[in-house]
Each structure stands twice: as structure tokens, then as C-alpha cells.
UniProtKB/TrEMBL annotation, chains A, B:
Coiled-coil ranges per UniProt: none
Domain Saccharopine dehydrogenase-like C-terminal: 151-398
SUPFAM superfamilies for the chain: NAD(P)-binding Rossmann-fold domains (SSF51735)
Limits of the Saccharopine dehydrogenase NADP binding domain: 5-147
Annotated transmembrane regions: none
Domain of life assignment: Bacteria
Name of the protein this chain belongs to: Saccharopine dehydrogenase family protein
UniProt xrefs under InterPro entries: NAD(P)-bd_dom_sf (IPR036291), Sacchrp_dh-like_C (IPR032095), Sacchrp_dh_NADP-bd (IPR005097)
Pfam families in UniProt: Sacchrp_dh_C (PF16653), Sacchrp_dh_NADP (PF03435)
Amino acid sequence: MKKHVLIIGAGGVGQVAAHKCAQHNRLLGDIHIASRNIKKCLAVIDSVHEKGALQNPKGVLKAHQLDAMDTAAVRRLIEHTGAQIVINLGHAFVNMSVLQACIETGAAYLDTAIHEDPEKICETPPWYANHEWKRKAICADRGITAILGCGFDPGVVNAYAALAVHEYFDTVDSIDIIDINAGSHGKYFATNFNPEINFREFTGQVWSWQNSQWRSNKMFEIQRTDDLPVVGKQTAYLTGHDELHSLSQNLNVPNIRFWMGFGEHYINVFTVLRNIGLLSEKPVTLDNGQQVVPLQLVKAVLPDPASLAPGYIGKTCIGNLVKGHKDGQAREVFVYNVADHVEAFAEVGSQGISYTAGVPAVAAAILIAQGTWDVQKMVNVEELPYQPFINLMNQMGLTTHLREAGQDDCLISFDLAELDAS
Amino acid sequence: MKKHVLIIGAGGVGQVAAHKCAQHNRLLGDIHIASRNIKKCLAVIDSVHEKGALQNPKGVLKAHQLDAMDTAAVRRLIEHTGAQIVINLGHAFVNMSVLQACIETGAAYLDTAIHEDPEKICETPPWYANHEWKRKAICADRGITAILGCGFDPGVVNAYAALAVHEYFDTVDSIDIIDINAGSHGKYFATNFNPEINFREFTGQVWSWQNSQWRSNKMFEIQRTDDLPVVGKQTAYLTGHDELHSLSQNLNVPNIRFWMGFGEHYINVFTVLRNIGLLSEKPVTLDNGQQVVPLQLVKAVLPDPASLAPGYIGKTCIGNLVKGHKDGQAREVFVYNVADHVEAFAEVGSQGISYTAGVPAVAAAILIAQGTWDVQKMVNVEELPYQPFINLMNQMGLTTHLREAGQDDCLISFDLAELDAS
């Protein structure tokens, strides 16, 4: 049985993961957290102690300085700590170096977002095939468990897609993943993560899987408005997202789209900044001769995303609207989670968006430790048993619900003893 | 008779002034243009030659490098050139040094905007009394002609106020100066003059003269919509402006307000930039350690105002809406000018806003040269005879019109022979 966890990354999601690992350290064993900036790791550890989050108060919880771009350094840290599960929550450029270190050491690998080449940001589909899936064969050869994209989206929504396909439909026509943050940080404007990355996602083309092929649109070109559980009427925009690629390959569904909610205010500010040229990564020359990258200045004047958590209120709603047929009848279900920013902050000191990304990663680590998900190959979440994952998240603070016309919304959970027996 | 002109400043308005002086150089004599950057002066001179604008082709037209903050340097240039009329179109910080040089040399002084102390931008009323009017006594003592604020607004609108008070009303209740630029530069966003100055005007309080006292409001707090000649329905916002101060002191009118037209798009962009902190003059520190003043970066990414002129289309409408009583009847008149960006560019190579500011300054210089306005003291435009000024501008490209309910709009001009005889 694998145990002992190394968390790479000490941002908002890393903090959630550290708290959640601490809450389950009788099973997970030693917990190590590493970042380029060890002070961030120490702050996370302080936060875990403040909340008294360690299930086994005598358990190991240690901070490490690490350049995760350096495969050898990651390998040495894995060996030094004896970690058998690596939860990679670092920035998007380190996936391949961390994965390589796991391959070399035999540790299980987990991440929550696709790899990005620093030189080729915003790559086009096929996304996972650009980097991750090129290591599928070696992972299978060496028996390496590598679970890709195991935050909320990608991650939980992949499990929801598998759930719908396997349990609610004979044929699925479309899966629309809808991601709404109806929370408010109380600032005039802020991004929920690094503005340099955040804005970059929306400046180019967006991709969707429609009629079993890739289709490209402009950002903010296509929108939908839904009346959603708890958060009510919300408008979301067609956006490209990692999981569209793996779902399009792993499930036989002709239409898979991702929709990200944006308020009019967000879009307006984004549009003004972009059109004026303030989101550019190319330096401009000021009258005084300074060379300045506009996007770096915008980052400097916007609130630090980490500073938003204490004042964040409201809820997120993320789910899959699935349409298809069952027993010859048209059917439509919405499988979703609602998370609360205030509750997340009270429990783990991060806001709700970090919470929804960090909890699934730790749930996956627990399932690896328990053996259920220790599959000794590279997989995306839709390829794994979704029942224990959904059950475990129900216990860990992310509940899964089902909305279907004519019925009350209900919690989804599984009687696993019965399932195991079947 | 004074002649020989020194123009200080080679921006858009300086260019208009140079062309207009050239068109009248049989009367005005030698024309000199000075700027910190002599290349700008040379470009203006090239433009004058390209248009064949010199009325006397053999007349003197020369460029000079000048730091106009340096009184001694200005005095030396006045002495060196033999200029007897100085048209100060430099930035707002040089008024007092240039005026002092005129006082020391006996040259007549003209400007188009109020003096600003570099350390005390956006001063509160009483504006002219803060700096200019402190030199009234010495100008009177030495017989120095100093005409303050002689562009369009302040300037022409001051003459319109005097015209209304003297010719159309027994008592005036209110003067609303409305400044609309209904032109389009075809860019997503641009300011019509230096963005650092432009934005600064609107970031604080705005002042108006109401019920015979100063009143303060926030920018964009109070708006009005008027159906105006040529430019149609336009929304304008209560703004502070130089001329409110002198008019409040020189005319017995209880309500004098200034309204600047802004499109919703302008206000939106301005609001986003301001609220995010990008209009700040205080340096911020980037991740790479650079210290950057946000407003300077915004200036660098916005189009150079001087670059807008070739593509500028549409018209400006600036005028005074005056309400009061005449012969016991309520009366309301709108005295206005409409200028055309394309026509201005074709004639003098600048857009319409520069044109409306530069032509009145040269008209004033001509009236000084002719003696009519060579009053040998410091005055604001409303204290001077408005008839010859309005007549002369009619000939120089800025026509004055009157709108009154129930009548067709008509040109305002005066039979000066008859006036002189009366």
C-alpha cells in the first residue's frame, strides 16, 4: 500500500491539499509540502496547526524548498522523504519534470491541470497528447500510477461524465460542463488565480468538441444562460478546457463543451484592458525609457489572489448537464456540486475555488493509498471507478447532487458493499 | 503697433497658431516658434510651407529651442527675436515664467489655459487668483497687455458670455457652457491631448458656480442631455473649468457651469482604468523589481494624440446656453460654433479641437496688433470688446451662430463701422 505524500506547490490549492491530507494522515502517513518558496510552505503548515487539522497529531508535516522544473531535485526529494504519492499542484510548466521523477522512483503521480510548455502557451488540441500521453507506455511498462487532471474541472467533472454515461443513459448526445463562481471577493476587480495565467487563457481561440470534431471559436463569442441550483440564473461562455480532450477520446459522446461563467463586469474590464493593450506580454517603452511588460503591471496593481480568501462570500456551482436517451426516452440530467467560499475559508483557510480543486486531488491520493485507484498506469479520471471517488468526496466536503426535471434534487452516493458484492 | 509673434509650444495648438499667424503675416510680421524640442518646431514650419500658408512668402518663420520654465531664457528669446506678442501654448506649468518675461520686456502676453503649479495639480477655486491675477497690478503699472485664457474654452465662450449679457438679456440667470466633441478618431480609445493631463482633470472634484457660490461635485455625478446644432443629441457632464472663475467675478450671473461631453465608452474605459489603479501617479513595484508609474504606462500604450489628426472625422460643437430675462420676458439663447475635424486637418494639419483653441489665440494676437485689444493691462476675454473678435473669427474659420426657439439658427456678425459711429 502506497502512503506518505509529497505535495508540490504551496498556493491556494496546495494549502487545501495540505489541510485535507492532514485530516487523513492516519491513512496517508507523512505529509511533505514543497515549493520554490519555502516560506509559503511554512505558512501552510502554520495554518494546518492553527486549525488542529492533523488527524494523527504526531504525524510528520514538513516543508521543503524545491525547483520542480529540476527532475533530479524532485527525484531526490521523493527519495529523501520516502513519499509514494506525489500531488503536483505546482504551476503548469512542471508537470513533465515531476512525472519523470515519479517514473524514476515508482511514486504515484497526480495533477490537476494540463502541462504547458513555457514557450508554447495556449496550445491547441489534442492537449493531453501533446505531452502527458506520450508517457502512457512507459507508465504502463513500469507500473506507474499517474492520474491526470484530478481537481474539480478537470477531475470531478470527468467522473460525472463517466457516471452519466454508465448509469443514466443508453446513449449520450452531449455533455456541457458548466463552471460558475457566483461568489464575490468584494474588490472592484480581481482574478481568482495568477492574472498572468488567468488572462492568457481567454485571449485567443477557444476549442470545443462538436459533432465528434474540434471546433474553434473566439472567446466570449458563444454564451448560454442557465437557471442553476443554489446560484440561480447564470451566464457562461464557451471556453476551451483540458478535459474536453480526454473525454472526447475516452467516451463515445459527440458533443462535449465547457462553459465558464463570467459576469458582465469581468468581461467589460477584461475587454477594456485587452483592447487598450494592457494585457500584452510584449514590453513597451515609457517616456522615461523604461521597458515595461503591460501584463506585469496589471498583475502588480490587481489584488493578490491569495488575499481574496478572507473576504470571499457566496458559492460556486460546477456540474455536467448531460443529454441523451435512456430506454428510448430523451433524458436530461445535471450532476453538480455547490461549494461555499466562507465554509472553505473557515475549514482550510482558502476560498471555494481552491477548495474544489484541492479536495478531489486528496481524495484521489486516498483512493491510491487504499489501492482502489492504484492502477499502475496513466489514466484520466473518467477511466477510473467513479463510485468510491464520489462517496469519498461526499465525506470530505464536496457533495455530489443530481437534478432531473420533475424530481427533487438529490445527493448521489453509492452502497459500495453492495457494489463490491455484485 | 505691436507685431512680430513668438509662439511657445509646438503641439497641435501651436501648429494651428503657426499656420494662422502665417496666413496673416503681413500684419503680424515675423513669426517665431519655440519648444523644448526644436524638431517639433521644424515639423510645424515644414507643414506651414507645405500648405503655402505664408501670406507674405518672404516673411520670417523661424524655430527655436526653449525651456519656457526659464524666465531669463524666454526674455532673451523675446529680445533676440524682437517679438512684441507672445502666444503661450506651452504646457500648463510655464505660464508664470513666460508672463514674467513679457513683463520684463514689454511684450504682450496671451495664453489659452490656466497656470498649474507642478506640485499642486488640480487646484481648487479661485483659480486665476491663485497665480495669474497676482500679477494684475504689475501689468497695469507697466502697461503690459496680458490676455488670459484666449482659446475656445476658456476664450471664445467668455466672449459669448459677454455678448449674451450685453446684447440679449436685461438679467442673466444662468450660463451653461457645453463642450461636445462629436468627432471620431477611429481608435478603440484615445485621449485628444496628453493622457497624463487629460485624465488628471477628471479624477477629483469638479467645481461649478451656483447661486453665486462655489459648489463641489464628483466627476460624472451630474449630467445633462441636449439636442444640439449639427451634432444632435449629446450627453455632457458637469466639470470644473478655468473660465468659471473669471466669469463668476466679472459678470453678475448667479449660475455658471461647464459641461464636457463624454461618450459612455470613454467613461467606461476611464472608470475601469481608474478603479483598477492604472491612472495612479504613484509608482508600483512589479514582480521583477521594476518601479513603474501606472499612468505613464497607460500613456505609452494609448495612441499619441498627435497621431489622431489624419483620421479624425466629425464635428465639435461648443457654445453657451444662456437663460435670463429681456423686456420682462423669459429668454433662452444658445451661442455656438461648430468645427469640423476633416476641414481643420486639410487646412492646418491638426484636428478640430486644436483648431478651436489655436484660431482664437491668433485672432487675439491680430486684435492686439491692430490696437483694439492692446489694453496694456491683464484681462480675461469677457472684459474685452467681443464684436471685433467674433467678426474676425468669422473670417478666420470659426463662425459664431445663434439658436433661439422659434427662429432659424443665424450667423452672428457686427457692422463695426456702425458700432464705431454709435
